[in-house]
């Protein structure tokens, strides 16, 4: 999201959205707020590699203020049996499902990604997303603390080769 008007970049009260989603979001530039829903409940493998939530199992939604309304977009990680009920509930609540696709190949179990978009009252959009995710096994309580995982990778050498640093996040 990018907003051209500096007046629109003032901080926004997202408390109703946070209450509807049951967690705090992370503020981003231009008044945007982002909420993560890591799918730590899924045990996904590709071959003999265990896929960590921080790598490819992170559902998220973000809201950009537009006066009393907001634009919302996100990407939901869903199992095959969760896809139908979740997308049906989203559509019932006025949230568009703009794409359904894979991020992984030959994963087990199969995981699908539903891109979503909505425009309107931000709390209503958040309530719809929460209700839809409630039809999945997505953990909706307080997000777990990111566990520090030691990775067997020379991150200093990677940073030097790329010319820019990074950070380890959830083993990724």
What does this structure look like?
This protein is of the alpha+beta class and 172 residues long. It is 26% helix and 29% strand. The protein is built from five helices and nine strands; from the N terminus they run H-E-E-E-E-H-E-E-H-E-E-E-H-H. Strands 1-2-5-6-9-7 form a six-stranded antiparallel β-sheet. It has a three-stranded antiparallel β-sheet with strand order 4-3-8, with no helix packed on it. Strand 3 and strand 4 form a beta hairpin. Helix 1 (15-21) runs parallel beside helix 4 and helix 3 packs antiparallel against helix 4. It is globular. The two termini are 25 Å apart. Mean pLDDT is 89; it is low at 1-9.
Structure in a nutshell:
The chain contains five helices and nine strands. By secondary structure, the chain is α+β, with helices and mostly antiparallel strands. It is 26% helix and 29% strand.
């Amino acid at each position: 999201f990018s907003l051209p008007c500096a007046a629109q970049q003032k901080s926004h009260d997202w408390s109703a959205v946070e209450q509807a989603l049951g967690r705090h979001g992370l503020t981003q530039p231009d008044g945007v707020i982002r909420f993560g829903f890591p799918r730590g409940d899924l045990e996904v493998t590709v071959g003999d590699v265990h896929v960590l939530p921080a790598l490819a199992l992170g559902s998220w939604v973000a809201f950009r203020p537009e006066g009393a309304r907001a634009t919302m977009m996100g990407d939901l990680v869903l199992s095959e049996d969760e896809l139908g009920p979740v997308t049906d509930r989203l559509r019932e609540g006025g949230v568009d499902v703009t794409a359904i696709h894979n991020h992984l190949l030959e994963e087990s179990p199969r995981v699908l990604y539903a891109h979503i978009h909505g425009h309107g009252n931000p709390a209503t959009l958040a309530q719809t997303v929460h209700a839809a995710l409630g039809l999945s096994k997505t953990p909706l309580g307080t997000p777990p603390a990111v566990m520090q995982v030691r990775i067997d990778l020379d991150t200093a050498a990677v940073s030097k080769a790329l010319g820019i640093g990074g950070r380890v996040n959830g083993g990724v």
